[in-house]
């Protein structure tokens, strides 16, 4: 039989829904069987099987290992072969997403999850914070029960969470309790870095740099505080008119800071030259309040997520040029953890949860609440992940540092996605 030809026109990714299982499961129970996501990538007319990664490699003619070594050698010599090799590997990864499934899930909190972060050196360990201030430290690679740190309940929402890069047995938190602090895995406070001393001011965001040994945190009235890791405050300035929803240090130039706010701006700062609220390098106005501003792993791009229907990708070398705009429905809702787009740690891909909006231009009837993957350069939709047994709105998505496992937050639930074979071996 002659092989079927690939359609020439690009199609919207489709999702084939498998009937729901009637058996209820414990929050800590592993998924018993692989749930195959029949998700088709753009232009695909077949269902990928478990060998899709290798099929993708073959169809894309990705170089064999000897050629990869040769390509790396040419790259070291200054020859421009790395972009094509990286693109081939990225395409192979996109093909592999067809075999991703949810192989573990948990619902440990009595309030919705509000933040998550991966351990920087252990690829199967993450920390998740809740609206009640609870924190779960979960190594899903072992069967032992996760570590659970009880919060204060109402008013203790964890708004930012980062492992301490100088001691990965500790982690930083910012919270509505009114503190940014360093804690250990037993829940003990190692050091309080910032405290508002009033119920009307709380901290909404944080980031940490190992190289420059700095901690930065933002509050709900527009202040940003910079401290060193010994706890000494370097400055405390009102940089925005309203809540600072996100702060991010550039991973390659850690003196480069991005701050996002509900005042509809993202501002870029040189920490070596901050003298006051007007000393920003660039101010990037948005049409709506902004939930997040994240630098790409190579520090060359900045991804922003507003509170309605737009993602933006700015070039770090050309701030004044119009950004790449990606229309995407992710509207803000008071009782929903704000949706924030993130970067894949190894490829130029954007990952974000979809909150279908009937007023969105391209909305279709019965649109699914998927996890969408976009190309960071073109803004083109590359893939959609969906599981019919976890069909809620997914607010947070973050790949582990290896780039092969995805953690998601959906209301009270934490979802772990991985390739089918990897999940079965765990």
UniProtKB/TrEMBL annotation:
| CC per GO annotation | cell junction; Cul4A-RING E3 ubiquitin ligase complex; Cul4B-RING E3 ubiquitin ligase complex; nucleoplasm; site of DNA damage
Per-repeat ranges for WD: 237-279
Q: Which SUPFAM superfamilies match?
A: WD40 repeat-like (SSF50978)
Recorded hits in InterPro entries, A to Z, give: DDB2 (IPR033312), WD40/YVTN_repeat-like_dom_sf (IPR015943), WD40_repeat_CS (IPR019775), WD40_repeat_dom_sf (IPR036322), WD40_rpt (IPR001680)
For this chain, the family text in UniProt reads: Belongs to the WD repeat DDB2/WDR76 family.
Task: Answer yes or no on keyword Repeat.
Answer: yes
User: Which of UniProt's keywords are assigned here?
Assistant: Acetylation, Chromosome, DNA damage, DNA repair, DNA-binding, Nucleus, Phosphoprotein, Repeat, Ubl conjugation, Ubl conjugation pathway, WD repeat
Gene Ontology molecular function terms on file: damaged DNA binding; protein-containing complex binding; ubiquitin-protein transferase activity
> Which pathway, per its entry?
Protein modification; protein ubiquitination
Basic and acidic residues: bias regions: 1-11
What protein is this chain from? DNA damage-binding protein 2
A Pfam family that the UniProt record links to this protein: WD40
Region (Disordered) location: 1-31
Q: Where's it found, cell-wise?
A: Chromosome; Nucleus
Membrane-spanning parts: none
Name its GO BP terms in alphabetical order.
nucleotide-excision repair; protein autoubiquitination; protein polyubiquitination; pyrimidine dimer repair; UV-damage excision repair
- Origin organism is Mustela putorius furo
């Amino acid at each position: 039989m002659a092989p079927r030809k690939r359609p020439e026109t690009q199609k919207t990714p489709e999702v084939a829904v498998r009937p729901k299982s009637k058996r209820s499961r414990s929050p800590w129970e592993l998924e018993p069987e692989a749930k195959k996501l029949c998700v088709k990538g753009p232009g695909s007319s077949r269902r990928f099987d478990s060998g899709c990664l290798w099929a993708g490699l073959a169809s894309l003619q990705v170089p064999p290992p000897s050629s990869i070594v040769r390509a790396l050698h040419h790259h070291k010599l200054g020859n421009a072969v790395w972009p094509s090799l990286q693109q081939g590997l990225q395409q192979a990864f996109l093909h592999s997403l067809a075999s991703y499934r949810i192989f573990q899930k948990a619902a440990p909190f009595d309030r919705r999850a509000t933040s998550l972060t991966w351990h920087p050196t252990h690829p199967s360990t993450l920390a998740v914070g809740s609206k009640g201030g609870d924190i779960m430290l979960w190594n899903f690679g072992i069967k032992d029960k996760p570590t659970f740190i009880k919060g204060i309940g109402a008013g203790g929402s964890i708004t930012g969470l980062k492992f301490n890069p100088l001691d990965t047995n500790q982690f930083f938190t910012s919270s509505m309790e009114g503190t940014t602090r360093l804690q250990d895995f037993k829940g003990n406070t190692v050091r309080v870095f910032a405290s508002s001393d009033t119920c009307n001011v709380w901290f909404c965001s944080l980031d940490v740099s190992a190289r420059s040994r700095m901690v930065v945190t933002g509050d709900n009235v527009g202040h940003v505080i910079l401290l060193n890791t010994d706890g000494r405050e370097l400055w405390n300035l009102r940089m925005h008119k309203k809540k600072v929803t996100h702060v991010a240090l550039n991973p390659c130039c850690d003196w480069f800071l991005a701050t996002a706010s509900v005042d509809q701006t993202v501002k870029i700062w040189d920490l070596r030259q901050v003298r006051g609220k007007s000393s920003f390098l660039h101010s990037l106005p948005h049409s709506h309040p902004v939930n997040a501003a994240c630098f790409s792993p190579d520090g060359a791009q900045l991804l922003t997520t507003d509170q309605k229907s737009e993602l933006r990708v700015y070039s770090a070398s050309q701030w004044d040029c119009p950004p790449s705009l990606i229309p995407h429905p992710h509207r803000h809702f008071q009782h929903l953890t704000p949706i924030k787009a993130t970067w894949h740690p190894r490829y130029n891909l954007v990952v974000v949860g979809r909150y279908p909006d009937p007023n969105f231009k391209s909305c279709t009837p019965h649109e699914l609440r998927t996890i969408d993957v976009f190309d960071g350069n073109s803004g083109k939709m590359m893939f959609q992940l969906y599981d019919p047994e976890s069909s809620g709105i997914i607010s947070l998505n973050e790949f582990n540092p290896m780039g092969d496992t995805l953690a998601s937050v959906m209301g009270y639930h934490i979802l772990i996605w991985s390739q089918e074979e990897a999940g079965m071996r765990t």
